[in-house]
Amino acid sequence: PFFWAVIPAAGIGSRMRADRPKQYLPLGGRTILEHTLDCFLGHPQLKGLAVSVAQDDPYWPRLPCADDGRILRAAGGRERADSVFNALQLLAARGADAADWVLVHDAARPNLARVDLDRLLAELADDPLGGLLAVPARDTLKRADADGRVRETVDRSTIWQAYTPQMFRLGALRQALDDALRTGVAITDESSAMEWAGYAPRLIEGRADNLKITRPEDLLWLQQAWVRKR
Ligand code: CTP
Ligand code: MG
Fold first, then answer.
1. Which residues does the UniProt site feature Positions MEP for the nucleophilic attack point to (predicted)?
2. Residue 101 in contact with residue 170, Cβ under 8 Å?
């Protein structure tokens, strides 16, 4: 199916403790954000792409892709959900239909493989609702008490780590985010907004190396993998 893409890139990367937001750190000679955008820009089914950028961001205008006519710049918001919501509003204003698919993907995940993107699109093409890439929990999981002692071992077989892209119908996602933001309920991804609205998004197993750069060691790991790959 054809689809729209939304890339929230308006975070400050506080856990990364770098001199700039992590999406602008270098990876293999370009910025992380440019690699992330590349995962989508070459796709034949892409209808359009919106990237959410903070208002006073000095880095975005310096990227060559800032002039790319296929990319719409949306306003970053206070939380990730605000940034995504603003991008959805922009896409709707540019003619995206409520029934169209939207894939939301973190700017800080530059290692999305084309096979993962295509599997997500193919698996959910006929789904009324949508879903997300996710990875089954690998390690044995413990629930702790306040003193840092193990209270119990959690059944791992039903636990997944939520990745992106997360793929939903534009209208339903916009409504769920709008309601969640108005109510002030804590949501950390699109799926949690949809869950809160009463839906059950489908989990599509993805590759673990589509990791989100969160802390300095994540970038070190990815730089090594990048060198091996190219
Ligand atoms: N993001 C956004 N708008 C916000 C907050 C986050 O567009 N107000 C984006 C980030 O740029 C990132 C993605 O959402 O691509 C995932 O968020 P996260 O990994 O938490 O990034 P940051 O919020 O930048 O990092 P931190 O939480 O460590 O400050
Ligand atoms: Mg954050």
1. 156, 212
2. yes
In a domain, 153, yes or no: no
H helix intervals, 69-215: 80-93, 114-124, 170-183, 190-196
Q: Which domain holds residue 190?
A: 3-131+162-229
CATH number, position 23: 3.90.550.10
Establish if 151 belongs to a structural domain.
Answer: no
The total number of structural domains that make up the chain: 1
Q: How far is the CA of 124 from the centre of ligand 1 (A)?
A: 26
Q: Is the peptide bond before 165 cis (omega within 30 degrees of 0)?
A: yes
Tens digit of each residue's pLDDT, the chain (230 residues): 999 999 999 999 999 999 999 999 999 999 999 999 999 998 999 999 999 999 999 999 999 999 999 999 999 999 999 999 999 999 999 999 999 999 999 999 999 999 999 999 999 999 999 999 999 999 999 999 999 999 999 999 999 999 999 999 999 999 999 999 999 999 999 999 999 999 999 999 999 999 999 999 999 999 998 877 76
Q: Is 166 in the pocket of ligand 1 (CB under 6 A)?
A: no
Q: With contact defined as beta carbons under 8 Å apart, do 5 and 105 qualify?
A: yes
Model-wide pTM > 0.95: yes
ipTM for the complex? 0.99
Q: Are 88 and 6 in contact (CB under 8 A)?
A: yes
In a domain, 144, yes or no: no
* Residue from 104, 106, 218 to probe ligand 1 pocket by mutation (most atoms less than 8 Å from CB): 106
